[in-house]
Amino acid sequence: xxxxxxxxxxxNLINKTKTLLxxxxxxxxLFAIPFAIIAMMLAANVIPTLYQMxxxxxxxxxxxxxxxxxxxxxxxxxxxxxxxxxxxxIPKGLVSVRSAMVMLLISCIVFVFSAYMLNSLSFILxxxxxxxxxxxxxxxxxxxxxxxxxxxxDAMAPAGAWIAIRGDLPFSIILLSGAVILWVGGFDILxxxxxxxxxKKEHLFSIPVIFGVKRAIFLSRLMHTLMVAALILxxxxxxxxxxxxxxxxxxxxxxxxxxxLISPGDFSKVEKAFYETNIGVxxxxxxxSALDIFLKLRF
Length: 299
Description:
Layout (H helix, E strand, L loop, with lengths): L1 H22 L5 H15 L6 H25 L1 H6 L7 H4 L4 H22 L1 H20 L6 H21 L4 H21 L4 H7 L4 H5 L1 H25 L4 H19 L9 H29 L1
Helix pairs in contact: 2-3, 2-8, 2-9, 2-14, 3-6, 3-7, 3-8, 6-7, 7-8, 8-9, 9-12, 12-13, 13-14
């Protein structure tokens, strides 16, 4: 009987953990963290201390958790009306708003504490960072600039990782963060195509709603082109070497593939493009940048 109770409790714990990870889209953390690791390696001349690495990764993970939890809480009623999102954890009743708020508070405390454990500037900046995260979730009710603010939220990852180690923010790292803004903002424009009809009905703002589908797709392509330009300029200014630029070539191939899946008359492959290409983009940049950094300092 005791073993049966333990088994039931374990299954419940596993199911609740799966629900939580699904609600906060934990895998989306993989978008920003690779660029943060690149900045971290450059700031530390390859390998930071275990202390720095631990607290930076904790800060990044819980910052992302705060962003996703707050977004799910604020948008719970909207999500319940949207056919695409009505099965999310809060609208479906799998997680209560109260429980989500408790998890949010804990995540905020862990994020701020991890910033405090790094240095005073990281600690001070953790508060405006949280403010930006909280404001983002309301923006689509008022402005189409939400795509760019989301990019800025993710771009805080490489900037924050550098600041955590060096305590400053040079122009080269601003360029790297700018590339992240353009990349994330560009694919968020494409992602919003899936909610085009719903957003129009609910009077929500997005670039496809305000400017039309063709212009939105063009702007996304332009932003990704500028992202590549920013990565190249960063590589020249820092400077990086041949392996880093080889990674950019593969990124270009992935981005071309992503945009080939989407046309003004067909949004059916948006989600496929979103997941398959964007995790690949950050992973490829980390792989080739890490090799470049290791070999550059070794030879």
